[in-house]
Amino acid sequence: MIKLYGGQFSRASIVHWYLEELGLEYDFIKLDMQAGEHHQVPYTAINPFAKVPGIEDGALKLWESGAILMYLAQAYGELKGASAVEVAIANQWIYFANATLGPGVFVEANREKEFPRLMGTLNEILSQQDYITGSGFTVADVGLGSMLNYIPMMLKIGFEDYPKIGAYVQRVSQREAFAKAMGNR
């Protein structure tokens, strides 16, 4: 059985959401982040950098939310047996969410310049398709949808000027798996 390690209000919720989407059996082990459980063995045997989330799937120990999402998609989800192109497109959007969108929006020094540029382009893309890859809901939507959902939660910034993003966020957050994993925030 897959074991997901994380803390309340951590990026473990991203992986939690995708596990729910896949309908897999898993055990969510909530670490007491305030007490520093993520800095202690046995968790540091999974992630020596003491960051969450981390998973164990049999002998595999894996950390970084994007890497975990891609592993799950290829081992159990829609990318099982997928082409290199399909995997690359999913990776592109998950990397974008974590490496471009996150720092562009959540790093205050970047926000004024990057927020309108990133949101404007995303709004345009989402005006042409309901989901980010254009091929229905995928793991890429979990990666991107999570980050976009964090914006109003953490920064109290809405998407009034970006109606297609607002509609997308509403669409992904109405999924049953989202409600189970992230809806109680």
Q: What would the keywords be for this entry?
A:
about 180 residues; alpha+beta; Glutaredoxin; Glutathione S-transferase Yfyf (Class Pi), Chain A, domain 2; 2 domains; 4-stranded mixed sheet; globular
Radius of gyration (CA) equals: 16 Å
Tell me roughly what share of residues is in helical segments.
Answer: 40-55%
Quaternary structure state of the chains depicted: single chain
**Counted beta strands:** 4
How many structural domains in the coordinates?
A: 2
pLDDT < 50 runs, ≥5 residues: none
Strand content: 5-15%
Task: Summarize this structure briefly.
The protein has 2 domains: 2-75, Glutaredoxin, CATH 3.40.30; 84-182, Glutathione S-transferase Yfyf (Class Pi), Chain A, domain 2, CATH 1.20.1050.10. The chain is 54% helix and 10% strand.
Could you describe the 3D structure shown?
The protein has two domains: 2-75, Glutaredoxin; 84-182, Up-down Bundle (Glutathione S-transferase Yfyf (Class Pi), Chain A, domain 2). It has seven helices and four strands. The chain has helices at residues 12-22, 65-75, 84-106, 108-126, 139-155, 163-173, 176-182; strands at residues 2-6, 26-30, 54-57, 60-63. Helix 1 links the parallel strand 1 and strand 2 (26-30). The longest helix has 23 residues, at 84-106.
